[in-house]
Amino acid sequence: MNGVLVGLDVGTTSAKAVATTADGKVLGAGRAPLTWHRSDFGVEIDAQQLVDASISALGMALENSGARDVIGLGVASMGESSVLLDSSGRPVAPVIAWHDVRDLDELEELDRQIGQKTFITETGLPFRTQWSLTKHRWQTRRDPRVAAATTRLGVAEWVVRSLGGEEVSEQSLASRTGWLKLHERAWWDEALAWSGLASQALPPLVGAGSPTGRVTRAEAPSALLGATLTVAGHDHQTAAVGAEATQVGTVLDSCGTAEALVRTIDPGLDRHAIAILAEAGITTGWHAEPGRWCLLGGTQGGLALRRVLALLGLDTGDIPRLDASPTAPTELVMGGVDDDTLTIAGVAEGAGPPELWHAALKAVTARSKRINAAMSEVAGPHARFVVTGGWAASTALMATKEEAFGPLELVGTPEAGARGAARFAGVAAGIHESVHESTRNVHDTRGGDSA
Description:
Layout: E1 4-10, E2 14-20, E3 26-33, E4 37-38, E5 43-45, H1 47-65, E6 70-77, E7 83-85, E8 95-96, H2 104-113, H3 116-123, H4 132-142, E9 151-153, H5 155-162, E10 169-170, H6 171-174, E11 180-181, E12 186-187, H7 189-195, E13 205-206, E14 228-234, H8 235-242, E15 250-255, E16 259-265, H9 271-279, E17 282-286, E18 293-299, H10 301-311, H11 319-324, E19 333-335, E20 343-345, H12 353-379, E21 384-388, H13 395-405, E22 408-411, H14 416-428, E23 443-446
Helix pairs in contact: 1-5, 2-4, 3-9, 4-7, 8-14, 10-12, 12-13
């Protein structure tokens, strides 16, 4: 089997990999879980586990595909989380989860010392705990091991380096750090100095699909050895590429652990529009796709739904039964989707697990609907609404979304993020000029009450 491309998406809960033909047909897929732990300070993971899970998922995808000749590997990942390396390339500290909120004090200091408005208009990011710079300031003040750090990488950049690639900073991941000036596409010296990170610690900026060396790591599956490597960017944006959802007027709803609504636009929004979007919780940043910007409104909808399942003593295997269970009329309402604490109100006679589940589905959808409305104020109403991610398997959630957004297009191929990463691998390997060459239709359309 010749000319195989492989894509890897290192997300919050697992690493997902697909092997594809040059024209995008998925040959095999693999997945390996990631286990975060709660320390005295917050949610963390060992950097080596990210690599081990990636190698495991890649091996599974290649075994399932039967591929023996891989020419390119693209790696996408969650954003914001930092891997800090010493001069010999070893991680010096745990990787802090993007949703960890240990840096609340640092956020207040950022407001006092740089200013909320300045931060938003320079970076395109809402003012909240999520971005790399406040977590880095937290680390430099509380973890003496960080003093030995000489290089900072994002998760996908770390995995590429660990497989044998060069150290780079990909632009869509850089846009999630708080260190990149949006309009200039350049590092922001004032923010770097404030956070305690030397500018020399950040490798050169590149676009997704730029060749960054070849796979040389002995522990990698043998079929990968010699394959061209590339950082494919932030996973939600790479998923938009994999789902063929980067056209004007298209919204991608990436329904994973972190749900995100993604719209691809041309660069050049003014600072006033950026501030309006940030007020609604929407980031404006560089897209993984070259020469484009991305509007991205993220929620913790997937995490909230997992918490509800845990509260009910259930897991994802119980979702089909919950989806299909009849519900009694109820005033049950859930709040706090994007907070550490969910709230439940209106618990009356007859309320049970199905009622709570459907209240949760309505709550996460209402949050997404507010984000979509704010995006539409700037970018115009959506013409297509494309849904991908693990939560798309919930028929009840899809029916709730369809009521809110109109007809849905469900991605009919596994792992859109990994599939998009494989397309960037094709660009890096020189077999495609762009990620839009030789693609296959990956959608099923749902309209009316078919969901």
